[in-house]
Amino acid sequence: MSTLYERLGGSDSITQISSDIVDLHLANKAISTRFANSDLSRLKQSVAEFFITGTGGPNLYKGKDMLAVHKGMNISAVEFVAVLDDALAAMNKNGVGQREQEEVLFVLYSMRSDVILV
């Protein structure tokens, strides 16, 4: 059985999806202010590395865990859902299959307690 990483198309495809997710976040009124002062190229790289590592690809991610990244940000449930919506839209834009979309959303949702109101 192939890994989610492989089924998503590997590093190049996941990097494109990650870039699209960040672009959607920047356009999403519910969360765009969270990213207003970000180094976008670094943010896109970090998201891609996290996504690649988390789906079974090469272990590229050297950043903080989700709890450490989001601690003190007071992220709401509405903002969390906006992130999931953007991830789904980016996967749709990139032709990701239904099964893979469900797996990615399941993994993202499983991080909810490390993101919301921490």
TrEMBL record:
Please indicate which superkingdom the organism of origin belongs to: Bacteria
**Family matches, as Gene3D superfamilies:** Globins
The cofactors named for this UniProt entry are:
heme
Return the InterPro entries for the record. Globin-like_sf, Globin/Proto, Globin_bac-like_CS, Hemoglobin_trunc
One GO term (biological process): oxygen transport
**GO MF term set:** heme binding; metal ion binding; oxygen binding
* Pfam name, any one: Bac_globin
Q: Where does heme bind?
A: 70
* Source organism of the structure: Vibrio inusitatus NBRC 102082
- Please identify the protein, giving its name as recorded: Group 1 truncated hemoglobin
Q: Which UniProt keywords apply?
A: Heme, Iron, Metal-binding, Transport
Residue ranges of the TM segments: none
